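Pipeline run #58 for the internal structure catalog. This entry was flagged by the ingest filter as a single-chain record with no existing model, so it goes straight to prediction. Upstream metadata was stripped on purpose; only the residue string is passed forward. Reviewer on rotation: M.T. Logging verbosity set to normal.
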Amino acid sequence: MKTSGYAATDANVPLQPFSFERRDLRPGDVGIDILYCGVCHTDLHMARNDWGFSAYPLVPGHEIVGRVSAVGSGVSRFKPGDNVAIGTMVDSCLDCDQCRRNEEQMCRNGVTVTYNGQDRISGDITYGGYSNYIVAREEFVLRVPDGLDLARAGPLLCAGITTYSPLRNWNVGPGSRVGVIGLGGLGHLAVKFASALGTEVTVLTRSEGKIGTARDLGADHVVLSTSSEQMAAAAYAFDVIIDTVPYEHDLGPYIDLLDADGTLVIAGSLVDTPAFSNLRLLMGRRRIAGTPSGGLKQTQEMLDFCARKNILPECEMIAIQDIGMAFERLERGDVRYRFVIDMASLPAVQAA
């Protein structure tokens, strides 16, 4: 199907209108008219080839919310008119040990990511949600529960599951003490989730200006990481710390805040970590762990949890024509806390 979108054609030029062909539906496919797409920091990195593996033209977007418009002959779970979502992946082998454990994001044979990936059958490069239509394998389409605001649900598909997953995997709940480093796109959702799960939540931030916001989001306490006194007072205070900071920073001072057998989970940074003394880990049997996004089952669980608890990201709606401005502000950290593109602003495909 002829599809309209916005694409990066080079690392050094702004995104621009781009028309392309989506594949015809296979028997197990779902065709989706995209209504909204969140803007992830990954989109900015990929458009600019910051990690060195972007393939152009590149259509970003993996926080997709839309409505089913067509289904393949073998599809049983969805029908036209259903409200659905797609996150960071659109296919995997579904047969390896990780896929059988509902951890498709760690497929041994390689997950097919929503954009800048490679279709498992055709070999074509995948194009993402900065477009008006997408096709995905039925198993990778998620149901948006009734009552969840479609216009704000998109960022849950990446930022949401990236922070919900470690909270669930480390079994936090009533009685748990959770710290959240950073209060951006990921961090603000980590606070909302941890609070809704019944934990004692503390935000660790460098900014005094975020104290009131952190409490409004559900934090019980705020610690200024620039204050040696406050950091010292928080020693041994946490069972789990979720680190959402996307740039290089020293983990050492935060390790000191973990109680015995505590875990610091890195959710935001894809850069090298400065060296620190292993003594900080050894003396408390502490751990440092990483977390990718979650599997399909856990992502659907998160969406259902958000509907029950009325959890939504704080969003700023933009038109697709403003994506250049959004990227500039995202780079400056000037967004509270996620941009979402209203795909009604995307011009229709011109007839050939």
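catalog note: The first strand starts at residue 2 and ends at 7.
catalog note: The chain has eleven helices and 17 strands.
status: ready for reviewer M.T.
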